[in-house]
Amino acid sequence: MKIALIGYGKMGKTIERIAQERGHEIVSIIDIDNQNDFESDAFRSADVAIEFTIPKVALENYKRAFAAGVPVVSGTTGWSEKLPEVKADVEKNGYTLFWSSNFSLGVNVFMAVNKYLASLMNNFTDYSVEMTEAHHIHKLDAPSGTAITLAEGIIEKMDRKTAWVKEAATKPEELVIKSIREGEVPGMHSIRYESDVDVITITHDSKNREGLALGAVIAAEFTAGKKGFLGMNDLLKLG
């Protein structure tokens, strides 16, 4: 399969290596200094583009890839308020976008466990719930896209929570997400339920970026030849 890379930082380089190890060809690499390559024959020849950049440029990257007729797999977060608009645009125009806030298999299993636990804890109102997430100092968005997805899963399953907030709640129906940025932490997400008598905690702690990069390449393999807005539930069938 022919793959284009959009963004060539640490994640892009890891994706490049894993894609090549799986027998794929990298036909184009687009970074900040060669934006005109979106219009190149090399980029247009790609079966799929994998995009890991920053929030302020991600949506424009999608548009330029779509204009070139190239499907996109993206893990850029920090723009989720635009998600309904992007989904509608993809479906209306017959584009292909596979987006996930996290491509790790373990994280997506964790997300399914999170929803199941929230549905159980919905019946036990003596428990409070909050989340803590930690990432490296280079991560620009806080809370992380994964934390927001986890929070949305809790809100979906728990009647007493209706919205997430950063750092501190002012209303009992708010779910607190605490964000830590330190060192080179790949990513940690922990959800804590506490009552007067005990604490229940579930945690996912990434060891490195390898799982994210591998998941992105597997998503690209899945996405090639498909249409519409896709995600990890489509790939992994976790429900």
Structural account:
With 239 residues, the chain is of the alpha/beta class. It folds into two domains: 2-103 and 210-236, 3-Layer(aba) Sandwich (Rossmann fold); 105-205, 2-Layer Sandwich (Dihydrodipicolinate Reductase, domain 2), CATH 3.30.360. The chain is 37% helix and 25% strand. The chain has helices at residues 10-21, 41-44, 55-67, 83-93, 105-121, 145-157, 210-223, 232-236; strands at 2-6, 25-30, 48-51, 72-74, 96-99, 128-135, 163-166, 174-181, 188-194, 199-205, 228-230. The chain has a six-stranded parallel beta sheet, with helices on both faces. A five-stranded mixed beta sheet has the order 7-8-6-9-10, with helices on one face. Helix 1 (10-21) links the parallel strand 1 and strand 2. Helix 1 crosses helix 7 (210-223) and helix 5 packs parallel to helix 6. The two termini are 28 Å apart.
